[in-house]
Design brief:
This protein is mainly alpha-helical. The chain has nine helices and no strands.
């Protein structure tokens, strides 16, 4: 049995990803996830309100990474450059979590309810970025455009990274930002 709540969450997430990869999202129960993680179903529900949320526990981590990364960029750096640096700063963490990220992406692709949840997660994260950019002094319309665009560029880069295993994510991020720069003339 796990000794800490953090360990229990990690084991539940790992167990869920494994089971969903083996049998599909719809054919796995919370009781089976708990059993695989060697905890009770009651413990499962102490950590996650439903079956979908166990997959999106990484959202909390991603939010922390993005917040810390953007906070580390000097406030006199313009919004677009600040977001570019923020993306670069989170790339190593995304690369370190590739296996779980790829598993989650594969599940989302084939499960409509998970696609809906992933879209909601993205909207929430972009809203956080907008708020952080506004707090740095950006106008709200500029912050919204910068946050949506930078996050879209990162999403594009991750998609091409997943399509070409063995390549570093940073290479795809650099290419995607360069491509956008070429499209808009700078």
């Amino acid at each position: 049995m796990p000794r800490s709540g953090k360990e229990a969450r990690e084991r539940l997430t790992k167990a869920a990803l494994e089971l969903f990869a083996e049998r599909g999202f719809d054919d796995v129960t919370t009781a089976e996830i708990a059993a695989r993680a060697e905890v009770t179903e009651r413990t499962y529900f102490r950590h996650f309100p439903d079956k979908r949320e166990v997959l999106f526990d990484g959202e909390r981590m991603l939010t922390e990474w993005v917040t810390a990364a953007l906070s580390s960029v000097p406030s006199d750096i313009a919004s677009w450059q600040a977001m570019r640096r923020t993306v670069d700063l989170i790339v190593p963490r995304l690369e370190a979590n590739r296996v779980d990220g790829d598993r989650l992406a594969a599940l989302i692709e084939v499960t409509p309810g998970l696609r809906e949840r992933a879209a909601a997660k993205e909207v929430t994260l972009i809203g956080l970025l907008v708020d952080l950019l506004v707090a740095r002094g950006a106008a709200s319309d500029e912050a919204a455009l910068v946050a949506r665009t930078a996050w879209g560029v990162l999403g594009h880069a991750i998609g091409s990274w997943r399509a070409t295993p063995g390549t570093p994510l940073q290479q795809h991020v650099d290419r995607a930002f360069a491509l956008l720069g070429g499209l808009v003339g700078g």
